[in-house]
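RECORD TYPE: inverse folding
INPUT: C-alpha cells
STRUCTURE:
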C-alpha cells in the first residue's frame, strides 16, 4: 500500500517512541488484549476462507475459480505468519506506544490527502477508503471507552503527558498493524478487501469488550477511577468523556441502588414472615430468654470460622462425586454454640437476626438442591458451598440486600455458566466443568472469612467465560449460517422438484425434452430460486418451462405460428445460456440442443400434438377413500387442538434460551436455541460449543412439550430465583 495513504505512520512512531519500562498493569492489559485479538483474528481468517470458497464455488469461469483457490492457498500458507506479525506489532504498541499526535494527524489525514488521492493507484485508493471507513466507525461506536482509555493510559505511562497522550489500543493503530501484516500476502485487491471486511466484522467490531476490560484493569490499579472528576480537571479535551462517564456513573449507581433497595425490602419482608411464623406457632426467639447469653456479630463470625469448610469433606475426594449434600446448618451452628464457653457462664444463644439469616441460607440451598434448571453435576458442586456461604452471610449481611455482592455474583455466574452442561459430557475433558470445580475447590481450601476471595474468583471465572464464549459464538455463528444455507437450499430443491413434477406429469414429453428439464434446466431453476431475492429470476426460469411446453403443442392459427417463430429463437438462446451458466456438460450440451431444435422443428412442421397423460387419478386423489379422509381429518383436528396451547408456549422461546430434551431411552441433553428459520418453520438448537445438536419444527416441539420430553429452563439469576421461591413458600405458610 502507498505510504501516502496515511496508515504507515505506524513503523515510524514505533521506532521513535520511548522504550521506558512498561507498568505492570499495562503488561496485564497487553497480555489480555494480544490473546483476545488473536482469538478474534482466527475467526476473521476462518470467515475469509469460507468467503473465498463460496466465491470459487460460484465462479463463472475456470480462471476466476482458480484465482480464488490460489488466494485461499496463499492465505492458508501464510496465515500463521500474519497472525504472529499482527500480535507482535500490537504487543510493541504497549512497549513503545505511539503518541496520540499521530492519531490526531491520522484524523485529519483524509482531508489533507483529499487533493492527493489521484496520486494513489486504484487498488490503494479502494483499500484506503475501506480502512478510513473502518477506523471512523470504530471511533464513533467506541468513543466513550476510547477517550477514557486514552486518559488512563496517558497517566499510566511515565513518558506520556496531556500534550502528548497515548492509547496503544486506538483503532487506527490496530488497523495499521493488520495492514502491515498482510503486506506479505500475494493476493489481488478484491481478496484484500475481503480480508479487511472480515477483520472489521470479527475484530474491530468486537473491540468493545477488550476496551472495557482495559479500563477495568486500570481502574482497579487506581488510575482515574472516577473519570467524571478527572474530566473536569483535564480541560476541554476530556469533557466529552466526562459527560459520557457521568451518564454511566449516574445510570449504574442508580440502577444498583434501586436493585439494592428491592433486595433489602425483600429481605425485610422475609424476616417479617419468619417472625409471623414464629408467633403463629408460639415459638419465641431464644434470645428473649434472660438466662441466655446472646452471641452475634463479630463474636459469632469468629466462632463460625472454626467450622471446617465441609464437615464430611474427608468422605469424598472428588467434589463432583455422589449426590448433592444437604447440611443442617441450624444443627451445625447449635453444635458450635454448645461447645462455647461464655464469660458470664450463661448458655450461648443466637439473636433473632442471625437465626433468620441461618434459616434463610438453609431455605436458599433447599431451593438450589431442588432446582431442575441447574445441571446435576453443577448442582453437586454448588451444594458443597453451604457452610462457606453461611460464613459469608453471618459476617456480611449485604449478601441479601445487594445483588452486586461478590459471593452472590459468583454463585449466579456458576449457575448461569453450568445451565448447558449435560450429564453426557465428559467431566475430565470439559474445561468449563473443570473451571467450576476449581472455583469450588479454592473456596473450600482458601476461604478464611475474607469476601474478596469471591471477587477474585468471579473476575477470573468471567474472564474464562469470555474466552470460551468468543470461541463458541464464532462456531455458533458459522453453524447458524450453514443451517440457513442448507435449509434454503433444501427448500429451493423442493420447490423445483414440485414445480417440474406438476408440469411434466400432464404430458408425455419426448425423452430428450424430459432430460433437458429434469437434469439440466432444474439446476438453473435451483440457483435462480436461491438468488431470487437479489436477481429476481425465478419466474423467468419457470416461464422457460412453460414456453417450451407451449412450443411443443400444435398451433394451427397463423397468429400462434407467428408467435412460435418469435419465441423459439429466444427460448433456445435462454436455454443454452442458462445451461452454460451452471456448467452443464459441454459435450452433451451441443447434442442436446440439436435434438431440442429437431423436436421443435418437427412439432412445428407436422403440427403434431404432445400427448396428455391418462394414467388415472393422481396419488393424492387415490390416497384414501372419503370415509378414511374424514377419519384422518378428525384425528388431525384432535391433534391440532391438543397441541395448540403448547404451540403458544413454544412461540415464547427466544434465541439464546436453554431447553432440555429427554429421549425415549431415558437419556437427556441440554441445548440452546440458536436460530428460528421462519421460511422453513425450523428451530435450530446448538450445544455449549456452538455445534448443532437438533432441529425441530414448531409443531414437533409442541408435541415434545406435550409429551413431557421437552423442558424450558429458567435462566434468571440463581439467588434471585431462590429468594422469590422462599418468599412464595413463606407466604403460603403464613396465609
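DESIGNED SEQUENCE:
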Amino acid at each position: 500500500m502507498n505510504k501516502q495513504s496515511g496508515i504507515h505512520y505506524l513503523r515510524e512512531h514505533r521506532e521513535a517512541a520511548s522504550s521506558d519500562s512498561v507498568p505492570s498493569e499495562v503488561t496485564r492489559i497487553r497480555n489480555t488484549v494480544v490473546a483476545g485479538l488473536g482469538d478474534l483474528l482466527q475467526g476473521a481468517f476462518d470467515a475469509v476462507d469460507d468467503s473465498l470458497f463460496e466465491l470459487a464455488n460460484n465462479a463463472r469461469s475456470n480462471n476466476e475459480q482458480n484465482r480464488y483457490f490460489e488466494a485461499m492457498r496463499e492465505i492458508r500458507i501464510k496465515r500463521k505468519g500474519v497472525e504472529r506479525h499482527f500480535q507482535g506489532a500490537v504487543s510493541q504498541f504497549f512497549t513503545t506506544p505511539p503518541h496520540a499526535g499521530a492519531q490526531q494527524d491520522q484524523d485529519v489525514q483524509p482531508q489533507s490527502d483529499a487533493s492527493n488521492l489521484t496520486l494513489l493507484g486504484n487498488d490503494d485508493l479502494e483499500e484506503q477508503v475501506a480502512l478510513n471507513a473502518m477506523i471512523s466507525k470504530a471511533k464513533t461506536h467506541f468513543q466513550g471507552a476510547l477517550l477514557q482509555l486514552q486518559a488512563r493510559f496517558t497517566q499510566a505511562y511515565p513518558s506520556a503527558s496531556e500534550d502528548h497522550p497515548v492509547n496503544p489500543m486506538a483503532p487506527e493503530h490496530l488497523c495499521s498493524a493488520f495492514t502491515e501484516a498482510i503486506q506479505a500476502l500475494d493476493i489481488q485487491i478484491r481478496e484484500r478487501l475481503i480480508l479487511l471486511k472480515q477483520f472489521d466484522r470479527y475484530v474491530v467490531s468486537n473491540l468493545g469488550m477488550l476496551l472495557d476490560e482495559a479500563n477495568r484493569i486500570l481502574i482497579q490499579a487506581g488510575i482515574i477511577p472516577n473519570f467524571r472528576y478527572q474530566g473536569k480537571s483535564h480541560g476541554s479535551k476530556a469533557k466529552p468523556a466526562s459527560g459520557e462517564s457521568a451518564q454511566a456513573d449516574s445510570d449504574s449507581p442508580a440502577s444498583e441502588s434501586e436493585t439494592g433497595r428491592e433486595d433489602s425490602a425483600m429481605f425485610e419482608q422475609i424476616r417479617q414472615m419468619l417472625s409471623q411464623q414464629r408467633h403463629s406457632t408460639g415459638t419465641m426467639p431464644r434470645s428473649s430468654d434472660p438466662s441466655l447469653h446472646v452471641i452475634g456479630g463479630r463474636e459469632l463470625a469468629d466462632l463460625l470460622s472454626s467450622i471446617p469448610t465441609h464437615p464430611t469433606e474427608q468422605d469424598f475426594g472428588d467434589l463432583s462425586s455422589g449426590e448433592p449434600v444437604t447440611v443442617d446448618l441450624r444443627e451445625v451452628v447449635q453444635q458450635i454454640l454448645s461447645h462455647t464457653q461464655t464469660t458470664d457462664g450463661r448458655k450461648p444463644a443466637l439473636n433473632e437476626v442471625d437465626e433468620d439469616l441461618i434459616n434463610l441460607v438453609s431455605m436458599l440451598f433447599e431451593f438450589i438442591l431442588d432446582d431442575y434448571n441447574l445441571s446435576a453435576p453443577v448442582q453437586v458442586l454448588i451444594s458443597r458451598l453451604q457452610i462457606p456461604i453461611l460464613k459469608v452471610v453471618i459476617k456480611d449481611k449485604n449478601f441479601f440486600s445487594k445483588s452486586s455482592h461478590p459471593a452472590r455474583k459468583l454463585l449466579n455466574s456458576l449457575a448461569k455458566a453450568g445451565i448447558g452442561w449435560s450429564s453426557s459430557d465428559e467431566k475430565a475433558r470439559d474445561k468449563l466443568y473443570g473451571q467450576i470445580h476449581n472455583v469450588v475447590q479454592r473456596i473450600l481450601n482458601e476461604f478464611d472469612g475474607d469476601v474478596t476471595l469471591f471477587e477474585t474468583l468471579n473476575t477470573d471465572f468471567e474472564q474464562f467465560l469470555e474466552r470460551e464464549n468468543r470461541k463458541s459464538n464464532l462456531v455458533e455463528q458459522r453453524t447458524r449460517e450453514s443451517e440457513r444455507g442448507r435449509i434454503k437450499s433444501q427448500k429451493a430443491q423442493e420447490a423445483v422438484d414440485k414445480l417440474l413434477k406438476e408440469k411434466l406429469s400432464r404430458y408425455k414429453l419426448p425423452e430428450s425434452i424430459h432430460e433437458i428439464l429434469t437434469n439440466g434446466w432444474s439446476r438453473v431453476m435451483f440457483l435462480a430460486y436461491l438468488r431470487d431475492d437479489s436477481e429476481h429470476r425465478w419466474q423467468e426460469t419457470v416461464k422457460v418451462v412453460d414456453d417450451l411446453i407451449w412450443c411443443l403443442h400444435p398451433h394451427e392459427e397463423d397468429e400462434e405460428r407467428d408467435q412460435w417463430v418469435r419465441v423459439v429463437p429466444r427460448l433456445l438462446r435462454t436455454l443454452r445460456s442458462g445451461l452454460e451458466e451452471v456448467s452443464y456438460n459441454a459435450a452433451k450440451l451441443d447434442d442436446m440442443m440439436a435434438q431440442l431444435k429437431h423436436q421443435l422443428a418437427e412439432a412445428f412442421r407436422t403440427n403434431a400434438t404432445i400427448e396428455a397423460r391418462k394414467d388415472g387419478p393422481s396419488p393424492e386423489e387415490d390416497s384414501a377413500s372419503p370415509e378414511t379422509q374424514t377419519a384422518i381429518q378428525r384425528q388431525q383436528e384432535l391433534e391440532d387442538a391438543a397441541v395448540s396451547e403448547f404451540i403458544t408456549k413454544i412461540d415464547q422461546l427466544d434465541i439464546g434460551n436453554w431447553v432440555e430434551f429427554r429421549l425415549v431411552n431415558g437419556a437427556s441433553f441440554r441445548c440452546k436455541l440458536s436460530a428460528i428459520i421462519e421460511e422453513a418453520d425450523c428451530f435450530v438448537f446448538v450445544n455449549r460449543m456452538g455445534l448443532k445438536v437438533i432441529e425441530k419444527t414448531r409443531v414437533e416441539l409442541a408435541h415434545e412439550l406435550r409429551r413431557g420430553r421437552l423442558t424450558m429452563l429458567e435462566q434468571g439469576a440463581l439467588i434471585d430465583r431462590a429468594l422469590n421461591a422462599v418468599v412464595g413458600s413463606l407466604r403460603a405458610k403464613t396465609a
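NOTES: The chain has four domains: 3-225, 285-478+723-734, 507-612, 626-716.
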